[in-house]
């Protein structure tokens, strides 16, 4: 037997296992790819047909508007006069747009940070309570509400009238718990009664007083609701060693009566403070009784002037002007946080579910407290999720429009202005200037691009891991 023939016979005398079924041509086995095809055997033009609708939509809805906005921003309001970068210069010289830019900075710094921090707190705390799922559902529910509906809700929440606005109803309740309300807000002396305004809402007698003759102090403009349970006014008599008098409502229902004289059906004003003032200093004070009378020690009050301090007549506390120029931006940010804290909580809770529990338990066994575990282990492990939430909310905040437009009243709209709202007003408001509006749109796009770039870099890093 030759060497060639011996090589064709296996040790067992049969054909070699790897030679069984091999084509006589001896070539390598070919893959399942079609000639000129892709991984799935698809031709390039087939993939292009499937991608074409998406590319057309992307071009029509994204690329064309961006290119046209850049082009339009180089022309004036009429669209016929080329102004170059003039609209961009006008944008930074306009006070309203500068206010919008400052407010956008506040929005980008505050709103995403507060929403993310609250979401982190809610996600961590709900892991330790049995009704955590129900709590998450309640916190996440505002996400099901549109911005329009949320704006209407918070416009009512921030209403100045405590009878309508929930925020002021709570605030007024807290204030009135610790501060005594004025007994007769809005009341004032009857004209030609001897009392004159003395600054700050107080009223002082024009003449000094003596113990021999009572000093009556008639008032008007008392609210009917403040007289519930009031007794009839009584004339104060002379008392040894006292300066006396009566404070009453010098008004009789149905008319009649004599000005400056206590008539039988006129009401006493109880609980008013009466002060004796000498040289600008209070030397004595008293509070009117249920029948309106008061008594001051004559050794200190005689020769002084009597004053009814402003605290007797201060208007009822109406709460905080949430939608005023000073607080309108924080108020609108509060409504945004109410909506988006639930979104942050759900994403962070999903990331928290993937944190290795053995690391947390090992830290606790080593003696770490809950705050140390949270700060040194939980937060670093959740850092990628926190960045995702923060970047997403930053992009969302740069486009905020509807909440500001609905919540801020006309008197405060300039103070609450943001770039997206200014874009709408410049393009479609009373002074239509589409060139300036396009410039604002391009500038807003440039502000969003760095945030998007950071987000894309983060996504690429995660894919490499």
Automatic annotation (TrEMBL):
Signal sequence, start to end: none
The ABC transmembrane type-1 domain, residue ranges: 101-455
Transmembrane region(s): 45-67, 105-125, 137-158, 337-356, 377-398, 436-456
Record keywords, A-Z: Cell membrane, Membrane, Transmembrane, Transmembrane helix, Transport
Basic residues: bias regions: 23-32
Biased composition (Basic and acidic residues): 13-22
Location relative to the cell: Cell membrane
Its membrane topology: Multi-pass membrane protein
Region (Disordered): 1-37
Pfam families linked: BPD_transp_1
Record-linked InterPro entries: Ig-like_fold, MetI-like, MetI-like_sf, UgpAE/MalFG_permease
Domain of life: Bacteria
Family to which this protein belongs: Belongs to the binding-protein-dependent transport system permease family.
Protein name from the UniProt record: Sugar ABC transporter permease
Organism: Streptomyces mooreae
Lineage: Bacteria, Bacillati, Actinomycetota, Actinomycetes, Kitasatosporales
């Amino acid at each position: 037997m030759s060497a060639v023939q011996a090589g064709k016979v296996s040790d067992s005398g049969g054909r070699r296992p790897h030679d069984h079924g091999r084509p006589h041509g001896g070539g390598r086995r070919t893959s399942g790819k079609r000639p000129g095809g892709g991984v799935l055997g698809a031709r390039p033009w087939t993939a292009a047909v499937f991608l074409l609708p998406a590319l057309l939509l992307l071009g029509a809805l994204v690329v064309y508007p961006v290119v046209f906005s850049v082009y339009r921003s180089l022309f004036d309001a009429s669209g016929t006069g080329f102004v170059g970068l003039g609209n961009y210069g006008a944008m930074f010289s306009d006070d309203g747009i500068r206010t919008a830019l400052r407010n956008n900075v506040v929005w980008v710094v505050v709103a995403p940070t507060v929403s993310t921090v609250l979401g982190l707190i809610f996600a961590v705390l709900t892991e330790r309570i049995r009704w955590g799922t129900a709590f998450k559902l309640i916190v996440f529910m505002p996400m099901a509400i549109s911005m329009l509906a949320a704006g209407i809700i918070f416009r009512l929440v921030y209403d100045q009238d405590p009878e309508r606005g929930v925020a002021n109803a709570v605030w007024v309740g807290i204030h009135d718990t610790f501060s005594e309300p004025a007994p007769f807000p809005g009341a004032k002396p009857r004209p030609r009664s001897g009392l004159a305004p003395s600054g700050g809402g107080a009223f002082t007698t024009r003449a000094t007083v003596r113990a021999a003759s009572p000093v009556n102090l008639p008032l008007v403009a008392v609210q009917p609701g403040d007289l519930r349970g009031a007794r009839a006014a009584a004339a104060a008599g002379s008392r040894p060693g006292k300066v006396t008098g009566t404070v009453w409502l010098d008004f009789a229902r149905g008319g009649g009566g004599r000005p400056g004289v206590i008539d039988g059906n006129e009401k006493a004003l109880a609980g008013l403070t009466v002060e004796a003032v000498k040289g600008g200093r209070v030397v004595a004070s008293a509070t009117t009784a249920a029948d309106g009378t008061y008594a001051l020690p004559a050794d200190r009050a005689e020769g002084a002037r009597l004053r009814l301090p402003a605290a007797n007549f201060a208007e009822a506390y109406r709460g905080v002007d949430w939608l005023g120029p000073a607080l309108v931006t924080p108020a609108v940010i509060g409504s945004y946080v109410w909506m988006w804290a639930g979104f942050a909580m759900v994403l962070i809770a999903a990331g928290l579910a993937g944190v290795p529990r053995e690391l947390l338990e090992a830290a606790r066994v080593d003696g770490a407290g809950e705050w140390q575990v949270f700060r040194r282990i939980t937060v670093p492990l959740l850092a990628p999720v926190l960045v995702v939430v923060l970047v997403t909310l930053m992009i969302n905040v740069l486009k905020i429009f509807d909440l500001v437009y609905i919540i801020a009243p006309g008197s405060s709209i300039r103070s609450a202005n943001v770039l997206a709202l200014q874009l709408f007003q410049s393009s479609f408001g009373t002074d239509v200037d589409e060139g300036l509006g396009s410039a604002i749109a391009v500038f807003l796009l440039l502000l969003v691009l760095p945030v998007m770039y950071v987000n894309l870099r983060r996504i690429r890093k995660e894919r490499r891991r």
